[in-house]
Design brief:
Blueprint: H1 20-32, H2 37-63, H3 78-89, H4 91-102, H5 112-133, H6 160-193, H7 197-206, H8 214-247, H9 259-285, H10 294-325, H11 328-339, H12 343-355, H13 363-366, H14 369-395, H15 411-434, H16 440-445, H17 452-460, H18 471-482, H19 486-499, H20 520-529, H21 534-538, H22 542-552, H23 558-561, H24 564-573
Helix pairs in contact: 2-15, 3-5, 3-9, 3-14, 4-5, 4-8, 4-9, 5-6, 5-15, 6-7, 6-8, 8-9, 9-10, 9-14, 10-11, 11-12, 12-14, 19-22
């Protein structure tokens, strides 16, 4: 019997036996490299949708919101549906960043950055709809409690619509500060790796002088916890206030106290689904499968399954309350949703939001990337239908049958909505090309917390690089070194043809370690290639730097960033 209990090793959150430098290179690659064809195709489609939306917005403002499908009975419809939908999508970012940070959930570290960006971009889309719906968006500042041209005209603090203004503006500002604070170490990392002076200058400004000192990290952690504490109540308050737009009215189907928790659960539900959609795409396009793993997708699916079940319970509770109230108007509102002219929207909502997440009870399905991607899209479609059902079906048939009517969106309604989707993806794609999409400092902090690799390290009680490998592996490495591949021979030959060869009979080797960035190990590697003198290094250009990177396969871009050629020329002249 064992003398002690050994806790099982958790599944690694980072795959591929990554080292600290590997994490830096992988996360910086999408920012430093060139955009591939797939990125340009998606960006072009998103930009076209955005420009179409801009055209529809300009047409609406110049003509009036009569261009929308609104009528005297249904005075809220497509616009407020989209507003609530976008606010809901933004909820997952705050939950992943703030709440999971306070609960010390390490699996959030690879996905929080993109979730925070998604929050900001979705809240920007949400804010567009109420402003346009005002009819005179140039007077939007009237909703703020500041003096205007009428002097004593002040806002009505009893109006739930005014509460929206405070909730959304607070949510956006806190989320933006939280997001930017977390980016500071990553901006500094890109700054230090930058080759172009302009790029280095921009990222120096964005990093706010981050130097990586202990004091910087102490302040960083303190600010992160304070912001997380401020942002956590926002998860509950923002969508609760949005629900008050409906719950404080006397319209059947809206006047209910279940709306605040029901809306919050639905917001987290749709937000996690959108995060899943974006991360599944991004992990493939940016080659981040080792960081955004199947385990991350599975945990996200579990949250979707739980919140989807809560939303299903809320639907059942609504039906029960309508029946138990004995109010015929309330009962008819729900009967009309299920069997009236908009029955197709109601049952689409039920299928997408209640039934589809239940497939996640099966581990095989919730660990399937393609199935997760499909369900995440289905959930977001279902949550849009939920908002549509709540708003339109409660308004289109009121107390007077003589005023019953139907709502049909016009091409302007549809165009503006598609435009906001395009705008969202334009912002997200630009973000993925200019900002590190994973918090590299946080990911590095969990490298040693799990995995078989670190079980060996703990058992050996010595640094990882000192742990012996198996004889077979060692033999393989020796054989590979003894017999270089044909492609490597070709690269070495091309490199030496460009920078010249070393003749030991007539030349003496230089101390290459005098070049900043070349240590004893790198000097040994350069000597093995055939590089011994400052003159050879001084002839390197971008082409030779790339060849050197492909041969050594270590510290890519280091030679160019440190300007080995420039240093070697100066040393050679002395």
């Amino acid at each position: 019997m064992a003398s002690h209990y050994e806790a099982p090793i958790r599944k690694p959150l980072v795959l591929g036996d990554k080292g600290y430098h590997d994490v830096t290179v992988d996360i910086a690659a999408p920012v430093e490299g060139r955009a591939n064809t797939h990125w340009w195709i998606v960006f072009s489609i998103a930009l076209a949708a955005f420009l179409w939306g801009v055209g529809c917005i300009v047409y609406t403002i110049s003509t009036g919101i009569g261009t929308w499908g609104l009528n005297k009975t249904v005075n809220w419809a497509w616009d407020i549906t989209n507003f609530v939908w976008w606010v809901g999508i933004g909820h997952a970012g705050t939950l992943i960043s703030a709440v999971l940070l306070l609960f010390r959930q390490k699996w959030r570290m690879a996905i929080n950055r993109s979730a925070e960006a998604m929050t900001i971009f979705s809240v920007i889309q949400a804010g567009l709809f109420p402003i346009i719906h005002m009819g005179r968006p140039w007077l939007a500042y009237w909703v703020l409690p500041i003096p205007n041209q009428f002097g004593s005209l002040w806002v009505n603090f009893n109006s739930p619509l005014l509460w929206d203004v405070f909730a959304i503006s607070t949510y956006l500002s806190v989320s933006l500060v939280f997001w930017w604070t977390g980016l500071l170490p990553d901006f500094a990392m890109i700054r230090d790796r930058a080759v172009l002076p302009f790029q280095k200058k921009i990222y120096s400004l964005l990093s706010f002088g981050w130097s990586g000192r202990a004091k910087d990290w102490q302040r960083f952690e303190e600010v992160s916890l304070v912001l997380a504490g401020l942002a956590t109540p926002l998860v509950l308050s923002v969508h609760t206030i949005v629900s008050f737009d409906f719950a404080t009215s006397v319209i059947p189907g809206w006047h209910t106290t279940i709306f605040p928790p029901y809306f919050v659960a639905g917001a987290i539900f749709s937000g996690f689904a959108m995060v899943n959609t974006l991360l599944i795409i991004m992990r493939k396009v940016c080659h981040l499968e080792d960081y955004i793993t199947v385990q991350h997708i599975e945990l996200m699916n579990i949250v979707i399954m739980l919140t989807g079940s809560i939303v299903g319970c809320a639907y059942i509770t609504e039906l029960f309350m309508a029946w138990y109230s004995g109010v015929e108007y309330e009962q008819y509102a729900f009967l009309n949703r299920a069997t009236g002219p908009y029955w197709w929207a109601y049952w689409s909502m039920m299928i997408c939001n209640v039934f589809s997440p239940q497939f996640m009870w099966f581990k095989k399905l919730r660990t399937s990337i393609m199935f997760s991607f499909f369900i995440s899209i289905v959930v977001n479609i279902g949550m849009w239908f939920e908002r549509f059902v709540i708003i339109v079906t409660s308004l289109h048939r009121d107390y007077l049958p003589s005023s019953w009517t139907m709502f049909s969106p016009t091409f302007v309604d549809i165009g503006i909505f598609i435009g906001t989707i395009g705008f969202f993806f334009v912002l997200f794609l630009l973000y993925a090309r200019t900002f590190p999409v994973i918090a590299q400092a946080e990911v590095k902090s969990i490298l040693k917390s799990s995995g078989e690799k670190y079980k060996k390290l703990r058992a050996a009680g010595k640094p990882l690089y000192e742990i012996g490998t198996t004889a077979a592996h060692t033999k393989t490495v020796v054989e590979e070194k003894a017999e270089p591949k044909a492609s490597e021979k070709k690269d070495v030959s091309s490199l030496l043809d460009s920078i010249g060869t070393f003749d030991p009979a007539t030349e003496s080797a230089d101390d290459l370690k005098k070049v900043k960035g070349i240590g004893p190990q790198m000097e040994k590697t350069l000597n093995q290639i055939g590089i011994f003198t400052f003159a050879q290094v001084g002839r390197m250009t971008e082409k030779e730097y790339n060849l050197l990177d492909s041969i050594t396969e270590s510290f890519p871009g280091r030679a160019q960033r440190d300007d080995w050629a420039g240093q070697a020329k100066k040393l050679n002249s002395k």
